Amino acid sequence: MVLTDQFSAYTQWRTDVAGAVLGLRNWLSHNDIGDAQSDLRLQHLLERMREDKLVVAFVAEFSRGKSELINAVFFSQYGSRILPSSAGRTTMCPTELQWEAGQTPGVRLLPIDTRRNNESVADLRRKPAEWVFEPVDVDDAKSLQTALARVSETRLVSRADADAMGFPVDDTGLDGAKPDANGMVEVAAWRHAVIQFPHPLLEQGLVIVDTPGLNAIGSEPELTLSLLPNAHAVLFILAADTGVTQSDLAVWEKHVNIGRGQRSGRVVVLNKIDGLWDGLRSEAEIESEIDRQVATVAQTLSVEPKLVFPVSAQKALLAKVNNDVPLLERSRIAELEQALSSELLPTRQNIIRDNATSEAGDILRRATELLVARHKNLREQLKEMSDLRGKNQSVIEYMMRKVRAEKDEFEQGLAKYHATRSVFTGLQNRLFAHLGMDTLRSETRRTREAMVVSNFSRGLREAMREYFGNLRSNLKRSGNEITEITEMLDAMYKKFSVEHGLKLAAPASFSTWRYERDIARLERAFEDQLNTLGAMITQWKGTVTQRFFETIAVEARKTFETANRDVEHWLRAVMAPLETQVREYQLQLKRRLESVKRVHEATGTLEERLGELQQAETALLRQLDELGSIRRSLEASLGQPLNTNPQDEQSLAA
């Protein structure tokens, strides 16, 4: 199965899971079993599935064949090259290929002059007026190719302008752009490009990132701080005739393999093996040469040889366009596509499966627990009503007093519940005092002020390091508050379970480890890119400050925004089971008391009330069957069991 077929199968799987989740959400709403928090959680899960993207980044130095490889792997069925691919530099700025319903086909280009402002690409995405848009006719190949070629455009600027826009300039050309005879520096005309193209794979959520060479990558830190680390797969492309050059190694160490304990989703492509097909060597000699190159590359980059894929992108594209099977096999592109799908799709599928299993499983379990609680109360009411057959008025009065006593006892427990709710609110406020966006904004403002007044590089370094120290400290304090909230709720869950028979599982745990890891990654990037002697010597204080806040601080803000959203979601979810069970228990006590009162006022209504309770039990058992069917449908879509308790369903049917 080719990559496009596997991607389509993945998309269909995701659609099936979303349909099953939507069925659960609609059923809960229709049967008045869910609550606002459960509905919000399922809505959030559906939105995440709808917005699911698979990001594949292609990284290399210039002239390694990135664009041709993208054409060969993803766009061969178009019959021609979608991305410009020729000798020399073709992609001069980070370029994303994507598509969303309702977009207009075209190329969105962010002018390079926006680098002068203290705004990141992420901020500028929300400002359409800052971008140049060039529409394309997807049915006109020439129009399409002309528009896409704009990502190759450059312009000449003075050395001062290059410095002001953050481009490294070096007279030798080794550590930056080399000025020409007139002192002018060639830079990319565009800072970022987004190609909106209605290709079937892009329509299904694939996002392709094509990157420029080393100097251009280094001049746009947001690429290495956000786009590349968050990509689900990164293909690092080398040329078979040169192997790993010094500049290739710099790209690998600075931008692909930086700070990674594991290399999941990172593969190496040894492109242009057709250069070895010179007609003078036998096939065995060619294979031997390729094997030697693979071994050398693997050793140099410290990766396993199985992660190095020798291919010919140019021959693969030609073979696919002309349906030349022997040439396609010789290009060896199939092995790369298989590896890409085995690295990319299962990893992303597991993330969605785990999210859906956790969220839907928890909500299904709670719905089942609610039905169990209702059934238990129904059976108790049926027994109470049946026991009243033939009994005199004094027995009925005793039963009323008994139910009232239970109600009074539960209301005393409610006072403790409300006290716990008040403590929960206080702990929640303390948590957001450490984690909240207001705290982060204050810390960012304090750091900026410290950097502005600093006269020496040491002061800059201390301010930036203190920034990270305070972020780590805030996350640690947040983790402590979360632990206290979890322990308090666990004790409350157990108390209500023991004293009132409520069936409550232990509250779900939550960890800040993910956000601490992201901040640690940003700190490593800061140490490598800004906190170096070279950066402090060659860049103005204002430039260092600007780059810190438009790259590092922006990514830190994203991390804290995600943490706030996730914590708010967890807080709502962790309190909802107790609230639901308390409301249900109150309702059932009220119904029991009303039933006995009705019998007390007119004993002739006893049989009528028994009939009503039996009808309610029949309806409840029908709901159980429907819920079980929904659970099985979800499990079939996900391909694994949900975290529910089917024994509860069996107990209802007993």
User: In order across it, which strands form the biggest sheet?
Assistant: 4-3-7-2-8-1-9-10-11
* Biggest beta-sheet profile: 9 strands, mixed
Distance between the termini: 48 Å
Uncertain spans: 646-654
Helical proportion, percent range: 55-70%
**Class computed from helices, strands and strand pairing:** alpha/beta
Number of helices: 22
Radius of gyration: 32 Å
The overall average pLDDT, rounded, is 81
Indicate the overall shape.
Answer: elongated
Number of strands: 11
Description:
Among the domains are: 54-97 and 197-345, 3-Layer(aba) Sandwich (Rossmann fold); 375-501 and 510-601. The protein is α/β, with parallel strands linked by helices and 654 residues long. It contains 22 helices and eleven strands. 64% of the residues lie in helices and 9% in strands.
